[in-house]
Specification:
By secondary structure, the chain is α+β, with helices and mostly antiparallel strands. It is 45% helix and 14% strand. The protein contains 14 helices and 10 strands. A hairpin with a 2-residue loop joins strand 1 and strand 2. Helix 2 packs across helix 4, helix 4 crosses helix 7 and helix 4 packs across helix 14. The longest helix has 25 residues. The radius of gyration is 21 Å and the shape is globular.
Length: 333
């Protein structure tokens, strides 16, 4: 390695390892979440334990992700665990050990279930506890969580990013783009709504998205502050060579304040555990948007719109299926 390259590496490492007075130290940290540092050693220990548990190559995640991405996914899981802990504490939600054991029993025991995850059989209960907390958070919010948005569509990431940048300029720019995109489209024969009416100023509850084919991608719409533009791939990871489908939306407002006409808890009782957990993860990502989160560059970058506990950190050459652009007035110069 040349002297110039050595100096460059030293500078890059120094930028991350230099701590800030009064806050958690960046030295030896894989990530910092608010006032909490997640040590590199903790990520490495989880990674080593997982490799030891599946040294025969039986872990399903090894085949899906490859070893190169497993460290990043392990770091993402730990950041997600810290976030769910913070949100659960703030909202006063918890779980019982009886619930943990019952859920483990339902999935066939720790050994079988852990092989499908980034956990070892010995610590699979940690994953279950996090799931129960996320579901409890989702139960708190599923009743009333809703957004108002203007949206359009795109057939490639490049097109989605271009439209998102245009919509982020202002509400007027977003409206103009939607009107341009729907010009000439017929009205909905069932509702009578024009294409413009169906895409502008739409107020929709989170439950409207849970029954869609790609609910996780659409949950990204609930992770961001008002004024943010979100792009989400609706067929990311699907097999086949069909055209890409993207939704691009400017979130005009987001609220979870109660509305009249629905009995408390009614919606939550109708939702399944996985749906409650997904809503909970969207709430957690929205909470994270208000926190200072720093990721060690060795693992990648933080993806604020993700609701996947293993994919909140993304690496080079592997763009997330969702992205966000803040409103122009909020962009730091």
């Amino acid at each position: 390695m040349t002297r110039t390259r050595l100096v460059a590496v030293s500078i890059t490492a120094g930028l991350f390892l230099t701590g800030c007075a009064g806050g958690p130290s960046k030295i030896g940290s894989a990530a910092i979440v608010g006032d909490t540092a997640i040590p590199l050693e903790t990520v490495q220990q989880r990674f080593d334990a997982w490799l030891a548990a599946y040294s025969d190559g039986s872990g399903a995640q090894r085949e899906r992700q490859g070893l190169a991405n497993l460290g990043r996914a392990q770091a993402s899981v730990l950041v997600s665990r810290e976030l769910v802990r913070q949100v659960a504490k703030a909202e006063g939600v918890t779980y019982s050990e009886e619930e943990v054991q019952e859920l483990i029993k339902q999935v066939g025991g720790s050994t079988e279930a852990a092989a499908q995850t980034l956990e070892t059989p010995a610590n699979y209960h940690q994953s279950v506890r996090a799931q129960l907390l996320a579901a409890a958070i989702g139960r708190r919010h599923i009743q009333n969580l809703r957004i108002t948005m203007d949206f359009t569509t795109a057939t490639s990431r490049t097109e989605a990013e271009r439209k998102a940048k245009e919509m982020a300029q202002s509400e007027q720019a977003a409206t103009a783009l939607v009107r341009k995109d729907v010009a000439g489209m017929p009205a909905n024969p069932q509702t009578g709504q024009t294409a413009e009416q169906s895409r502008l100023n739409q107020t929709l509850p989170v439950t409207n998205f849970l029954g869609q084919q790609t609910p996780r991608a659409l949950m990204s719409l609930f992770t961001v502050p008002a004024g943010t533009v979100v792009g989400a791939s609706l067929n990311s990871g699907q097999q086949g060579g069909g055209a890409q489908q993207w939704i691009v939306a400017r979130v005009k407002s987001r609220t979870d304040q109660p509305t009249s006409g629905t009995s408390p808890g009614e919606v939550a009782e109708q939702a399944g555990p996985s749906q409650l957990e997904l809503v909970g993860q969207a709430v957690i990502s929205h909470y994270a948007a208000g926190q200072q989160i720093e990721i060690n560059p060795r693992y990648g970058v933080w993806e604020p719109t993700s609701t996947d506990t293993q994919a909140r950190i993304t690496g080079p050459g592997n763009p997330a299926p969702t992205f966000s652009i803040p409103a122009r007035a909020e962009v730091r110069k």
